[in-house]
Amino acid sequence: MAEKKVNRWSVFGAGWTIIFFAASAAIFSVFAKPMLSLRGWTMTDFSLSFTIYTLCLSILGIFSGRVADTYGAKMNIYVGGVLFGLGWFFTGKCEMITQLYLVYGVLAGSGGGIVYNAALTTALRWFPDKRGKISGLLLASASVGPFVLAPVASLLIERFGVVRAFEVLGALFIVGICAVGWMMELAPANYKPEGWTSPQPGTPAAAGRDYEWGEMLRTPLFYMLLAVFVCASTAGTMMINSASVIAQTQLGVAATVGALVVSVSTMANFVGRLSFGVIYDKIGGFKSLLVSFALTIGALLLLGTAKSMPVFLVCVVLLGFAFGGLLVLFPPITSLSFGTKNLGVNYGIMFLGYAGGAYVGPRLSSYFFDATGSFSLAYLSAAGVASFGVLLVGAIMLKQRRRGNAVVTESV
Questions:
Q1: How many domains is the chain partitioned into structurally?
Q2: Rounded to an integer, what distance in angstroms lies between the CA atom of residue 284 and that of residue 81?
Q3: Each residue of 152-170: pLDDT tens digit?
Q4: Whole domain around residue 215: which residue ranges?
């Protein structure tokens, strides 16, 4: 029987669409004040739901990646899309904080993890010749989605209330994700585009070394990269959880302006994803991580002094740009470090670092806000975490240089 001909760009388009909707967690801060007013919860209690969401997203992403590696992503997309949409649909109806944790945190988070990792890794396998660029283009959808949906969510809340807004978005997510699931075809084993050969000798992947997840867990590099992921994602997840509230509190602006800040952040995130895809291909993964860390630390230190909208927006743009780059860098770094064959499950495990950042970041912002009524100490703490990440990246680079045989090449 002739092998089915697949247009890899149709797989890319489907993955782009799925991630567009699955990345809607970035608009969660738009719902913070309305839900706190409606239910009487504290910011700390409310933000924990986002942490649980990210943890479930990461854990289910591991199992989703394993299924996608073996059987393809289609069933993951249908099942995950329904769970994800239902989680959003029923979140507004939660009257107790424990219900919020189960419905948004567990249900929506699990659905998001099932579709996100399957869509990302399935699409990336079709483009071994354009790792950085495709990672950037694909994950750019995770910025375009919140940019479009943040003002939509704000308008829905204003006109119909927060409960109905969750219902409308939940229904939209189910339809949008499931409509393109049929296009998520699995690439053949060791797929190479016609006329292309790998230009990256000396890496595990190029040498035919594909790590099983258990083998990956026995390498020191994995734990160092995991810790870097935690440090690098702390500031970004803090802003995802609290951007709208931060703007309203620090500058005294209206909720609609707070939603606009979320859109500005996500558009900067979009530009960062596109830019860091190119930067990765130019200078390599670790140097690109250092660029992301430098921008993050500078923006956090400036943010504590921002009293005007222009300065505040500059900080938001820098943070969004740097955070967008982070999420583009780690999939290809994981692929080059541990091979492409088991990328779905391996990156799913690596993504636990993002879950760690999603715990630290929101907890920092919520703790200091509830304790002091300000986010200033949260900015300084997040800058300290990012600085530790710089030290970790430097240690990895030094270790690789001393060995003289880098596990992850810095020249692509």
A1: 1
A2: 34
A3: 888 899 899 999 999 999 9
A4: 8-186+200-403
